[in-house]
């Protein structure tokens, strides 16, 4: 297998699609097998949607589908053999879903496509079948422009569903679930698999994907805050301390917490990395003195940062890059994350991670202390809402900017740091996701004691941002779109697609999105989004700021 096609992330090659090797590092075989995983999930959905209409539900199937879809996100799993084994297990789940369907229907329908998938006899046959499921095959089969628009909308929904499934999987690991999530996934995939569709219905389904993701983000927020407490404004050390060390990257707070419990008293310092930086603001996490700070920045810098890190590294979720030999033997993955030759943690037993840290040299001395402020979730911000409102009414705060989302390697992403740095002194910048690493080490000062830079948290903490915006709108007796608030969003992978659809579902307009618009959104679909929601591509920082502030 020498060719592929994938355009699910922002950094897809040439802005159109990766066709020989993914920019993320995945090869054609992995890409094809991930298409097959999604295909099987669609088959499961056909059966489970129908079974649900008759009241038949299987929570184990629901959990498996969330996990499977998470595995297909960008920068999650690169191990071809692991994909093959997972597909074998998923085919058994498909049969389980079929039996669930048959248990409540006296007469079975004549179903086709993914509903009748049968596991091929060997790896070669599996790969051959998987290759037939590529996006290019769908585009070629679509024919005319109108059909290609439908394919683009189908992919937009699929990527949004992947994103919300990943967030739902995070919540499930903490014991939080909601049957409505799986119900929507099944309904959405069932519809996508139908022969006849129209653009209007698909657009409505995309907005419902955003609605479902809002439910998921609320669920995950509740899982985090009820388990770990509400984030608090916290000073975080960003330079290392002398001693043995573990860096924990990804998004999963539960895995970090379990590692902290197991490593307590072992003489090892633990550092967050990437999207786990916000963990340091949760009260329960603060009870562990060996959680000493954050190491490094955003995910795209990990090869250099992990090579220089003198300890073990645990990757808990997506944002894994193909590892360098310099640290591959002290890198560990878990859950659906995987890479060939990298050890995987099973059943939350972090003994190998701790042992690898103790065997590594660790930091030889304390670095010069540097700190940043984090922990401005909705609870923290709304607790001083009266001060914020008074500052706006007094003219001290003229505008709010939400500048956040995903980071990536391309030079064009400097746009977001340049905007943040050029925002006038009488404006407040809220940020979330790993995009904040482009400017969160800078000194922004304050306005009457209110910090000008408010780090709200992870990408999924867009829920906090929404709650803050809604609270401000209520206080000023206006709509969210009437607030002196502008959203400038950097996107990368499918979680970001889900968040964008949530914002569109909420009716939020005039969003600037970049550095490039999604390749899977066709010109006609983009026109609909521009005309309906005033969605804009990012431009030049100076021009965008002038246009924004000219309105306020």
Please provide a brief summary of the model.
The chain has 552 residues and is an alpha/beta fold. It is built from 18 helices and 16 strands.
Q: What sort of overall outline do the alpha carbons produce when their principal axes are compared? A: globular
Uncertain segments: none
Strand content: 5-15%
Percent helix, as a range, is 40-55%
What is the fold-level CATH name, i.e. the topology of the domain at 13-226?
A: Substrate Binding Domain Of Dnak, Chain:A, Domain 2
Report the strand count.
16
Mean pLDDT over the residues: 95
Strand order in space, largest sheet: 4-3-2-5-6-7
> Class of the domain at 13-226 in CATH?
Mainly Alpha
Biggest sheet overview:
6 strands, parallel
Gap from first CA to last CA: 54 Å
Structural class: alpha/beta
Helix count from the secondary structure assignment = 18
CATH architecture of the domain at 13-226: Up-down Bundle
Radius of gyration: 23 Å
Outline the structure in words.
With 552 residues, the chain is α/β, with parallel strands linked by helices. Among the domains are: 13-226, Substrate Binding Domain Of Dnak, Chain:A, Domain 2 (Up-down Bundle), CATH 1.20.1270.20; 234-359, Rossmann fold (3-Layer(aba) Sandwich). 45% of the residues lie in helices and 12% in strands. The chain has a 6-stranded parallel sheet with strand order 4-3-2-5-6-7, covered by helices on one side. A 6-stranded parallel sheet has the order 13-10-9-14-15-16. Helix 17 (523-533) links the parallel strand 15 and strand 16. Helix 1 (28-53) crosses helix 4, helix 2 crosses helix 6 (145-173) and helix 7 (179-192) packs antiparallel against helix 8. The N and C termini lie far apart (54 Å). 53% of the residues are buried. The mean pLDDT is 95.
């Amino acid at each position: 297998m020498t060719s592929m096609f994938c355009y699910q992330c922002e950094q897809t090659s040439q802005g159109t699609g990766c066709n020989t090797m993914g920019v993320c590092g995945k090869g054609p075989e992995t890409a094809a097998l991930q298409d097959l995983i999604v295909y099987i999930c669609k088959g499961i959905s056909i059966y489970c949607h129908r079974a649900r209409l008759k009241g038949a539900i299987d929570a184990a199937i629901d959990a498996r589908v969330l996990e499977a879809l998470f595995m297909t996100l960008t920068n999650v799993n690169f191990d071809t053999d692991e994909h093959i084994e997972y597909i074998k297990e998923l085919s058994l789940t498909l049969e389980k879903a079929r039996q669930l369907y048959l248990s409540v229907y006296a007469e079975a329908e004549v179903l086709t496509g993914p509903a009748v998938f049968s596991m091929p006899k060997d790896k070669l046959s599996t790969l051959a079948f998987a290759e037939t499921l590529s996006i290019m095959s769908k585009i070629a089969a679509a024919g005319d422009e109108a059909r290609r628009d439908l394919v683009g909308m189908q992919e937009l929904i699929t990527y949004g569903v992947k994103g919300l499934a990943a967030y739902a999987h995070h919540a499930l690991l903490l014991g939080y679930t909601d049957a409505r999530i799986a119900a929507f996934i099944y309904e959405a995939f069932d519809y996508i698999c139908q022969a006849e569709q129209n653009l209007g219905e698909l657009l409505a389904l995309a907005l419902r994907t955003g609605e479902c993701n809002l439910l998921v983000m609320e669920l995950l927020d509740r899982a985090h805050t009820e388990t770990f407490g509400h984030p608090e404004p916290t000073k975080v050390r960003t330079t290392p301390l002398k001693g043995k060390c573990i860096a924990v990257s990804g998004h999963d707070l539960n895995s970090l917490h379990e590692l902290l419990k197991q490593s307590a008293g072992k003489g090892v310092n633990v550092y967050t990395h990437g999207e786990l930086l916000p963990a340091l603001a949760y009260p329960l996490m603060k009870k562990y003195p060996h959680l000493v700070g954050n190491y490094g920045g955003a995910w795209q810098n990990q090869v250099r940062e992990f090579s220089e890190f003198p300890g073990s590294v645990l990757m808990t979720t997506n944002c894994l890059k193909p590892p360098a030999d310099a640290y591959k033997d002290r890198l560990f993955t878990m859950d659906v994350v995987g890479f060939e030759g990298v050890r995987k943690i099973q059943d939350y037993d972090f003994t190998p991670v701790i042992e690898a840290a103790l065997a590594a040299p660790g930091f030889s001395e304390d670095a010069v202390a540097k700190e940043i402020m984090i922990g401005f979730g909705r609870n923290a911000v709304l607790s001083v809402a009266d001060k914020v409102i008074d500052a706006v009414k007094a003219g001290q705060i003229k505008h709010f900017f939400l500048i956040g989302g995903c980071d990536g390697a391309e030079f064009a992403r400097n746009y977001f740091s340049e905007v943040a740095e050029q925002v006038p002194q009488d404006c407040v910048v809220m940020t979330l996701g790993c995009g904040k690493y482009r400017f969160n080490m800078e000194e922004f000062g304050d306005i009457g004691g209110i910090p000008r830079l408010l780090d709200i948290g992870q990408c999924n903490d867009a829920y906090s941002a929404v709650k803050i915006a809604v609270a401000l709108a209520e206080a000023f007796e206006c709509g969210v779109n009437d607030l002196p608030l502008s959203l400038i969003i950097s996107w990368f992978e499918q979680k970001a697609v889900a968040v964008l659809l949530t914002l569109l579902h909420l009716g939020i307009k005039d969003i600037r999105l970049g550095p490039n618009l999604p390749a899977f959104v066709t010109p006609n679909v983009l026109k609909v989004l521009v005309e309906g929601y005033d969605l804009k591509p990012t431009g030049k920082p100076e021009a965008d700021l002038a246009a924004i502030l000219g309105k306020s």
